[in-house]
Fold each of these.
Amino acid sequence: MPFQITVDCEVNGERIIRTLPATMLLSEFLRQELGLTGTKLGCNKGSCGACTVLLDGKPVNSCLIFMPQVHKHTVVTIEGLGKEGELTDLQKAFIEEGAVQCGFCTPGMVIVSEFLLRKNPCPTEEEIRDGIAGNLCRCTGYTKIIRAIQKAAKCRAEH
Ligand code: FES
Ligand code: FES
């Protein structure tokens, strides 16, 4: 039986205490233990960004984080970004700008974009490209994603 550890963490505002195999990845924990399947698994080796979540407010590839690293830390997934049942302005902008095609990259893209806009509310196109550089999209050619991020930034600036 694999070595077990008890992890005490917060996920999307809820305190969670679980005893788990020490080798369990955060991506597995979110999807299999908590049923938070909005976090996608692409490459499973830190190259595609599909599994991105916020760990203490910073984007990480959850396929590279072992659960002991999450002990006493805070995780936010795509399910926890908006108020319950509501999309954020950024999520709405992704839909309105056609930045969601197959949707597989979208949760990770939205998470890194949210991080970017919190840090830099008026990013240039180059800064947006840099901000999403670790996240791959096979469908959109990135133009619509960039437009969606610019739209959300503009809305936030106006409010
Ligand atoms: S699935 Fe984690 S980076 Fe690709
Ligand atoms: S929308 Fe399909 S991978 Fe980005």
Note: The pocket of FE2/S2 (inorganic) cluster (ligand 1) is lined by residues 41-44, 46-51, 61, 63 (CB under 6 Å).
Amino acid sequence: MNRNIQAIIKREYEKRQKSAYDRLLEKEAEVYSKIPRLRDIDNEIKTCGIRYNKMLLAGRKPAYKVVEELQRKIDELKNIKKELLAAAGYPLNYLEMEYFCPRCKDTGFVDNGTGSEKCVCYRQMVINFLYDQSGHKLIENENFSFFNEKYYSSGVDKIKYGIEVSPRENILAIKNSCLRFVDNFDSPAEKNLFFSGPTGTGKTFMANCVAMELINRGYTILYQTASMLFNTINEYRIRSFREMDYDDTDYKNIFEVELLIIDDLGTESPSDARYAELLTILNTRQINNLSKPCKTIISTNIGLKKLQEYYDERVISRIIGCFNIFRFAGEDIRGIKKLSSKQPV
Ligand SMILES: [Zn+2]
């Protein structure tokens, strides 16, 4: 996990602790104004320790007796406090810290008996952060549990669909390959994914399913449409030379993020596209992938042949060499979904 994320998460915990403490002070102020005696009792509890410490130093009584007496005194004061709170209609724990996560008291770490380990809330925070960082609002119902092959025809029609098998058989095979991709994500031998096919055949959905699965496993994801990607590159080219403090995180992420999704390749305006850059991205990521996961999913509405007209031949041969190529086929799912929401099938 990169240091940036750790620093952000650390700040978030500090913020949570501070807001729990601020909330406690607010509640204290409110209760003190209603029950002034409570403030005296709290002050007494706070000074108890000092008083008994002095007694301990004076050595007139054995230490264990002093400690016992201190404990008794504090318990007594706490009981009075509870009675006062109850009498005024407050819950007994009203003046306790309210943590966002009581398990770790908003520190992010819990004691497991042999040392400290990350709390479940820490992991959750990393995942939330990765969702935000992906540059794409991943939609909650775009994960494999919402996958439904019934949206794809079971009829074989090579002329209509351009594939030898039925769209349903085809999509099930693609789904299995995607699940394998997720499971083998750490393996340098696992190839990238290239999705081509007409609009509405589920390419972006499938890419999101893979992204969700990987985010849940703690990987870093960056989603970019082709035009966003080339904009980021263009902006970097222009601004990084002019501005001393230019933040090049987005640009660097394109090369370093564990999964890069390039959606709708070929739809960017030709003036934005930098084909040499695309080749550099693919080559750099391929080299990075040898030592750590650095994989790419490309989706496009246009076939490889057409892409060859748009892009340099070297880009295409890189795709052929390093990507598993999947052709999506079928009717436009968005149309089918609209229809089926009116007429249940
Ligand atoms: Zn926690």
Note: The two ends are 45 Å apart (CA to CA).
